[in-house]
Amino acid sequence: MNEYKTVPGGICAPRGFKAAGVKTGIKSLKKEDVAIICSEQVCSVAGMYTLNKMCAAPVTLTKRHFEGGHGRAIVVNSGCANACTGDQGMQDAICMAKETATALGLLPEEVAVSSTGVIGTFLPMDKVVEGIRKAAKTLSNQGHDGAMQAIMTTDTFVKEIAIEVPVGGKMIRIAGMAKGAGMIEPNMATMLGFITTDAAIEAALLKEALEDAVERSFNAITVDGDTSTNDTVLVLANGAAGNAVISTKDETYSAFAKALEYVCIYLAKLIVRDGEGATKFLEINVTGAQNFVEAKIAAKAIANSPLVKTAFFGQDPNWGRIVAAAGYSGADMDQTRVVLFIGGHKIVADGKGTGFEADALKQVMAERDIAITLDLGVGSAQATVWTCDFSYEYVRINGEYTT
Fold this sequence. Notes:
By secondary structure, the protein is α+β, with helices and mostly antiparallel strands. It is built from 11 helices and 16 strands. It folds into 2 domains: 5-273, L-amino peptidase D-ALA esterase/amidase (4-Layer Sandwich), CATH 3.60.70; 281-399, ArgJ beta chain, C-terminal domain (Ubiquitin-like (UB roll)), CATH 3.10.20.340.
């Protein structure tokens, strides 16, 4: 993967974007919990959303607002997911869009709404409205940090990046921020991802580029196999960089799409590294598959296996759990040709253990970052999925989430 020049400014690094994050007391008065991201110009927009059939009201509303491919702003709160809240939840999401539009001089349809936090509780709309009005007044091209803080829940560190890349003869910028640490298997972790760019690109191509990027990034991570009711990834492209509008799938489009994918993968990996209670960062590479879909199915089965995840937490050299997970995944494989590497060491060849010493493997599994590569022996396709281990701390966090 190409390396790109990083630039400061977070979500506000691309030209023409401002942001703000404020404290309203939804979580506590000690933490920001309402944020706005806004472009000075109308943007091409695209989104990817949760496949959970119990999707939250703000997801439904945002899909409706951004269906036409154009928009200007995102309003987001943490501390309450506004999910499983019925008609009142939808009215509250509509209110958030209207209040943001009024404060910024926009149409409500130009505003996306996102929420994250506890499911099944109603938003304290007096606090939310106050926060929206306050954030709108404090929007700044230096407001990325406040906005980032406002979307976090159980996250332990910020997840953001901004890069600069030549596209179509102009230097364009792409920036992103994300939140997520638990309830993570997006299928578009509880995760939200917001991306801004000053590139000029038609909405249909922006949507296609985002779909491809998400498939190899946010849809290639898992912490615990749970798909949230609120997962959303949005990208806004305002064209302020002055490049010729990307309207065909040419070299210019490819350069933009690769840079967008880089940003998404960078953020996705940070989500896994911040997995609730995680002590290991695991990269699962499946090779030798018939096609990408089957490679990913096998990789996800390994990544989601509680037995695999707990083995890595306990540094237990029980490699049989890895091949067993691939075996039940549904992906085609030839057990007589299966090869497994852990941390660069060949553990299985031709479907049988190589005799690699258990004590030596235990030392490999003690590392913080570990790569697992499994060759299915039936083709040439490959896929990569990132995950983490399951620890005692994960159980504590989620056993006490609302108490």
